[in-house]
Amino acid sequence: MMEGENGVEKKQRVDSGESGKKAAALFSDEEVGDINGLTVGDDYVEVTCGCTSHRYGDAVGKLRVFSSGELGIVCECIPGCQEDKMTPAAFEKHSGRETARKWKNNIWVIVNGEKVPVAKTALLKYYIQSSKHANGSNKSNTPKVCHRDEFIRCTVCKKHRRIRLRTPEECRSFHDALANTNWKCSDMPHDKVTCEDEEERGSRRVYRGCLRAPTCRGCTSCVCFGCQVCRFPDCPCQSCIDFTTNVKPPSTTT
């Protein structure tokens, strides 16, 4: 048994070394090297995080930071917790923190064995840049389009299922789902869901992933009327045809 555990530890060290090479594109070793639970992917960094409630104690999770500025937390407050891919504000509320709406100070990561507010680390630098961009402080550039999560209703069990819109593939899945008059839970593109699974509760459903506010009902950051991420040249629907036609450069004659 001990030999197997040593093998796991060795593999983790190798993976950490490979991840360290990828991390250079997002954060330097000085910025994140001392943060506990560091895992690095191709376009994100994941660390252990938490939020403390005086009544319920520590709620622990995994904070994933993307270069786009998007933040997501998978909650591990109790074994089997179903809350995943939460916004920081939603995680703060879910933890039972008494002084909510200050997630940058209330959510902490562990640096050299001590809890440090995420606001005092470099982990929010892409989030801050993205927020400034969305608020118009960098108007000279084309703003980054944000697509809110959307819901679709199963024609069999009548439950609403969340579909995330972060990538062209996810946008296409939602786009095709809307056109499918017989869409079912089993058609979920990226998550295995059946009609027997519980529906996302109403209080959680209001969180849609807007860059400005998690409970936003629609703003210039999260409402898109057509872009190259959510419109498709090979789709025969009128919305995609109109967009594809309009974005084509006008022909010139000589």
TrEMBL record:
<dbReference type="InterPro" id="IPR057012">
    <property type="entry name" value="ULT1/2_Znf"/>
</dbReference>
<dbReference type="Pfam" id="PF23292">
    <property type="entry name" value="SAND_ULT1"/>
</dbReference>
<dbReference type="GO" id="GO:0003677">
    <property type="term" value="F:DNA binding"/>
</dbReference>
<dbReference type="GO" id="GO:0005829">
    <property type="term" value="C:cytosol"/>
</dbReference>
<dbReference type="GO" id="GO:0005634">
    <property type="term" value="C:nucleus"/>
</dbReference>
<dbReference type="InterPro" id="IPR057011">
    <property type="entry name" value="ULT1/2_SAND"/>
</dbReference>
<dbReference type="InterPro" id="IPR010919">
    <property type="entry name" value="SAND-like_dom_sf"/>
</dbReference>
<dbReference type="InterPro" id="IPR000770">
    <property type="entry name" value="SAND_dom"/>
</dbReference>
<feature type="compositionally biased region" description="Basic and acidic residues">
    <location>
        <begin position="7"/>
        <end position="20"/>
    </location>
</feature>
<feature type="domain" description="SAND">
    <location>
        <begin position="30"/>
        <end position="134"/>
    </location>
</feature>
<dbReference type="Pfam" id="PF23293">
    <property type="entry name" value="zf_ULT1"/>
</dbReference>
<protein>
    <recommendedName>
        <fullName>SAND domain-containing protein</fullName>
    </recommendedName>
</protein>
<feature type="region of interest" description="Disordered">
    <location>
        <begin position="1"/>
        <end position="20"/>
    </location>
</feature>
<dbReference type="InterPro" id="IPR020533">
    <property type="entry name" value="Developmental_reg_ULTRAPETALA"/>
</dbReference>
